[in-house]
Specification:
The protein is an alpha+beta fold and about 375 residues long. It contains eleven helices and five strands, in the order αααααααααβαββαββ. Strands 1-2-3-5-4 form a five-stranded mixed β-sheet. Helix 2 runs antiparallel to helix 3, helix 4 packs parallel to helix 6 and helix 7 packs across helix 10. It starts with 8 loop residues before the first helix and ends with a strand. The relative contact order is 0.07.
Length: about 375
């Protein structure tokens, strides 16, 4: 990955360990060096130059894990070889395969930690200056050679830095997506589980108030069993989403809205008028909104006895109306995340939600969503 070893040492060490292709590349370059050292007759010190180049190229497979060490070794070895040749009175030279060592500066700025990049950049700069000073050419030609060296090494460093930035940006984008998925799961958990748990609590209270009425107790136990089974199913779905988020699909849609009907208390009547089939995302969101609205009415409305749910078409949009006959809300009821979450869901799909007192009495929520998210 593109993170530094200072931030994620375990992840980076696994991601940058030597790869098979690195050994193949190093082997090919070493073979080319041996052939070049055997055939060339213009090398001042063919054996020493070949040996040093082979040793440096042998470190290429570890360029991702130890880029600074490779850069320091390369700079020190090439500068020492050039200085020794100059002091010995021979013309400094090198081998063509040495250009493969440019992977050192690239790797330093691609995978190296921040401190390593600072140290390595200083070493590379000193190496370029020293190689310019050691050139036997006249001043102008030596300066041109130095500029060419700066451009060559600098291009490798820049390319590594750009690749690093791109990888870091990808990691951040993935982190944002994961955070959004977790937020969505939190909303699903609130919207679905709270709905069923509220029904269980109401039925349990009803059974407690009518302990001597077998019919009420039996009906309450039946509803509690049904809602508990639904809760377990929803929990299993959420666990599967956490384990394999890519395979997630909204489990409920338009048909599930009608299944929200319940004899109560409070009595819930859900009606879906003739509507064109919306996209899966819109259908799932409408179902979640209906669930949340019913849950809010059950929890917060005072004296609610009936809740109506109506889904109909309005031009290119779908309208979902949820109306209860309660009056006011329970004192001290926390606002929670439900309504805010529904509004965020609707806004993401290009829709809106309005909620407030109904002129005829009670509380009404109206959600407007486009049939398609194109």
């Amino acid at each position: 990955m593109g993170t530094s070893t200072e931030q994620h040492p375990t992840t980076v060490s696994l991601a940058v360990r030597p790869r098979g292709r690195d050994f193949v590349l190093a082997g090919a370059l070493i073979a080319a060096v041996v052939v070049e050292g055997t055939l060339r007759r213009d090398l001042s010190w063919p054996t020493v130059t070949t040996a040093i180049t082979v040793l440096l190229l042998a470190g290429l497979p570890w360029r991702r894990l130890h880029p600074l060490a490779l850069v320091i070794a390369t700079t020190a070895a090439t500068a020492s070889l050039g200085a020794a040749q100059l002091f010995a009175g021979v013309s400094p030279d090198g081998m063509a395969a040495m250009f493969g060592l440019i992977l050192g500066p690239y790797s330093l700025f691609r995978w190296g930690a921040r401190r390593s990049r600072l140290v390595g950049g200083t070493v590379l700069g000193a190496g370029v200056v020293l190689s310019t000073v050691l050139r036997p050419e006249p001043g102008a030609e030596s300066l041109i050679g130095g500029i060419a060296g700066v451009l060559f090494v600098g291009s490798a460093c820049l390319l590594g830095a750009l690749r690093r930035e791109r990888a870091d940006r990808l990691v951040k984008e993935i982190a944002v997506v994961r955070a959004q998925e977790r937020e969505s799961l939190a909303r699903d958990l609130h919207d679905t589980i709270a709905h069923h748990v509220s029904a269980i609590a109401i039925r349990a209270q009803a059974a407690g108030l009518h302990t001597r009425d077998p019919d009420v107790v039996s009906e309450s136990l039946r509803v509690i069993e049904r809602e508990a089974t639904a809760v377990l199913g929803e929990m299993r779905t959420l666990v599967r989403v956490l384990r394999t988020p890519a395979a997630y699909a909204p489990p409920a849609g338009i048909a599930a809205i009608e299944r929200l009907s319940d004899d109560g208390p409070p009595q819930i009547s859900a009606r879906v008028e003739a509507v064109d089939t919306p996209s899966d995302v819109v259908a799932g969101t409408l179902h979640r909104i209906a669930q949340e609205a019913v849950t809010n009415s059950r929890r917060h409305a005072i004296g609610v006895t009936a809740i109506s749910i109506v889904l109909r078409t309005d031009g290119e949009d779908l309208l979902l109306d949820v109306l209860d006959d309660g009056h006011g809300s329970v004192a001290g009821s926390p606002p929670g995340f439900g309504l805010r979450g529904m509004r965020e869901r609707a806004a993401l799909l290009g829709g809106s939600i309005e909620a407030g007192p109904h002129p005829a009495g009670g509380w009404m929520l109206r959600a407007r969503l486009p049939r398609s998210t194109r």
